[in-house]
């Protein structure tokens, strides 16, 4: 039967939640949403009903967070709680009803990203775990892991540095590049801590879109067939991200463009894959 | 992140608590006037008043889309914004901060709505412990009469209509407030709330309040500002 990480919300019947909850985690710009755009039609072709959901998309709080972030006036605890409100609204009004109806729920990030961000901003770890203790334990958490040196070119050649993704609120004296590097390095380290604690299945996100997609697909197929977990990678087995030499940066940039250059919203899956393949042959 | 009880500031924080109709806001207003006349730097902060969160709370309430959990979290967000941008800096600067409702309001309401008491307490553990927390104790019937005489009706969440206690808003309000009253009574010893008999004459309650506040301000560094 489904479990939570501690407390149970009023009126929630865990036994009814028969669908599958699959989490795609990973840092900013690693290609999570690209993968979800590919996974959804693949699942639907197999006759599975899919709900996909992501942070800041709640009807209740999504717009409020967006507006508050534009002003850059959010306090750290306030930001964490605003995100917790958004998450909980989606949990209760999207994720739980879909699981009750037997859907496969693909969620672009879950509590782990929110916890990592809050911890980096000085939140007490007991406090953060308590705030999300009623979250449902997923059926699988796939973590798209990347080193900061591989991440930077993807971000530079797609959407550029974002204020919050660069942690400018906690490293305001730096320029965006230095701040991004520092913040994302800390964030990735925190993800590795969480990976162990929460049993993430780690997928190396440095290869091209299709390779990552195939690995995710294999993992999800296994979850849906109810087979026991066999980790594809573990954090400790992954090599440390190599230093970015000149050659390496150029090479990654080519892959990155194909993976993440697409605008975040509504990109047809076929097009994404075609571009990914182009990127491969170009190399 | 500092936790409840760990903060040390030159400023002082006084809060009022009690069910709707207990007269706490009136008492706080009178205290405010007095402190100002005495020459203190006084600032007032009200529950559920952060401009950052207002639109979100309004939408949630209007569309009745708040659940016990999101009701709790959105009020915690509102409180955190006021704590981080308002209450904390002012206490650091040495002001006397007055709050109409504080974390105990959340502890009472959210628990009545079904959230676990420990979960709510931990959620607000970043809050500063007040210098004095006044609880205006009033029998349910007295409070009900004050509310229903003075207003045309009670709002959906105010009456606890989301809990499905009764189809009748007045009856629902009464059951809901009664349960909140029970939660407050449990918190009096837990948090050393200063209980004031809210059936006494207004000026009598105010005199008690001023005496206690005066004593607590006397122990502190000089906080007065020139009038």
Care to describe what's here?
- The complex is a heterodimer of chains A (283) and B (227).
- With 283 residues, chain A is of the alpha/beta class.
- Chain A has helices spanning 32-45, 62-70, 76-100, 111-120, 125-131, 148-156, 176-198, 209-225, 246-260, 269-282, and strands at residues 20-26, 50-54, 104-108, 140-145, 201-204.
- Chain A has one domain (14-270): Rossmann fold, CATH 3.40.50.300.
- Chain A has 10 helices and 5 strands; from the N terminus they run βαβααβααβααβααα.
- Chain A has a 5-stranded parallel beta sheet with strand order 2-3-1-4-5, sandwiched between helices.
- In chain A, helix 1 (32-45) packs across helix 10 (269-282), helix 3 packs antiparallel against helix 4 (111-120) and helix 6 packs across helix 9.
- The model of chain A is unreliable at 241-267 and 277-283 (pLDDT under 50).
- Helix content of chain B is 52%, strand content 11%.
- The chains are: A alpha/beta (283), B alpha/beta (227).
- Chain A binds chain B through residues 7, 9-11, 59-61, 63-64, 67-68, 73-78, 80-82, 84-85, 88-89, 92-93, 122-124, 126-127, 130-131, 133-134, and chain B through 1, 3, 52-53, 55-56, 59-60, 65-70, 73-74, 76-77, 80-81, 83-85, 113-116, 119, 122-123, 125-126.
Identify the notable features of this structure and list them briefly.
heterodimer, A: 283 residues, alpha/beta, Rossmann fold, B: 227 residues, five-stranded parallel beta sheet, 5 strands
